[in-house]
Each structure stands twice: as C-alpha cells, then as structure tokens.
Amino acid sequence: MIKILLIEDEGIIAADMENMLGKMGYEVLETAMDYGEALIRLAEETPDLILLDVNLGGKKDGIDLAEIINEKYQVPFIFTTSYSDGPTIERAKKVNPTNYLVKPFKQEQLFTAIELALFKISKKVAEEEDHRPEESDNLVIKDALFIKDKYRIYQRQIPLYQTAPERYSLAQS
Questions:
Q1: What is the pLDDT of residue 126?
Q2: Nearest-CA neighbor of 92 among 74, 66, 70, 120?
Q3: Which has the closest alpha carbon to 9: 44, 60, 74?
Q4: pTM passes above 0.85
C-alpha cells in the first residue's frame, strides 16, 4: 500500500484529509503537526509521498521543511496550502514540489494531485531504468504493483524471483 505522510498544523483539516486518504485506499502514517514533529516522523519511517502544508504555525514553514526533505530524504511531496500568492509560489517552485494543491479542495482534487504525483514518480523511475513509461499505467514501488480503479488503489506483492516449473529449461547460448 502507498504510504503517505501528512504534515498539517490544523487538526480538523488533518482529520478530514486522513479520512479522504483512507477512503482512497492509501496508508496514512501518523500525522505531523509542525516542523519538528515532521522531522521525527521522517526519521522513524520513510513514506512514499508527503502531503505538506506550507504554513506550519512556527518560525520554519513547509518550504523550509521541503529543503530538508530534498537534501536528506529525497521523498516526493505535494504542497497543500491556502496560499496562492506570487511570492509563496515562487519560493515553493525553488524546492521542486511534485504538485501544489490549494485549499479548500475536494476528495477528487486530492486524488488527482496524488495520481499525477505518482505518475511523475513512476515515469522518473522508469526513465532511470531505461524503460518507456508511456506504455504502462501501472506503478511499482518497493516490490509491489499498484493498480488504480477509480478512487481505489489495489496492491499486489511481486515476488523477488519465481522459479520456472521443471518442464522448462533455460536456453544456453
């Protein structure tokens, strides 16, 4: 299952987002409410994707945290914020978010932002492995295949290797 870390300083918004993510079939790690708590969560477990609020109610904001995420963890993130002003967007662009979602948003918008982020991740991984990503709608993360069906994502484990039945033999060249 795709693991998502939610970093949001507003408890009601965090609970609503956790509910939406659960309905969509994602595993939500314990939510971090501020910059320091987010660093602790990241040290405990590495998520597949981070939903990151820009305003974290302290001296350091989500954009500052995104710099640390890029330097130390290399985990893709989506900004979720009510800020859509020019200076904030310019600062956000410098840390290369996978997506930018302006609050308030609906479940469908959140799903779309996550799907696009996962597509970008899978495309990058495929390009690094010299594959052609445009031929596949499937995403592989940590030995698992994820198949999307509307707003649900299903996970199937992929064995590291599988032996062929005895009636088959390897061709020698």
A1: 74
A2: 66
A3: 60
A4: no
**Are the beta carbons of 140 and 11 closer than 8 angstroms?**
no
Structure tokens belonging to residue 39 = 């660093």
Q: How far is CA 32 from the centre of its chain?
A: 15
Type of residue found at 144:
A
Written as six digits, the tokens of 112 are 């779309």
For residue range 58-102, what is the model confidence (pLDDT) as tens digits?
999 999 999 999 999 999 999 999 999 999 999 999 999 999 999
Cβ atoms of residues 46 and 57 within 8 Å: no
Distance, in Å, from the CA atom of 69 to the CA atom of 14, rounded to the nearest integer, reads 20
User: Is 100 strand, coil or helix?
Assistant: strand
How far apart are the C-alpha atoms of 128 and 82, rounded to whole Å? 34
CB neighbour list of residue 18: distance below 8 Å, 6 or more residues apart = 6, 28, 31
Residue position matching structure tokens 């305003």: 55
Between CA 24 and CA 47 the distance in angstroms is 17
Instruction: For strands 49-52 and 144-149, give the pairing.
Output: unpaired
CA–CA separation, 14 and 53 (whole Å): 10
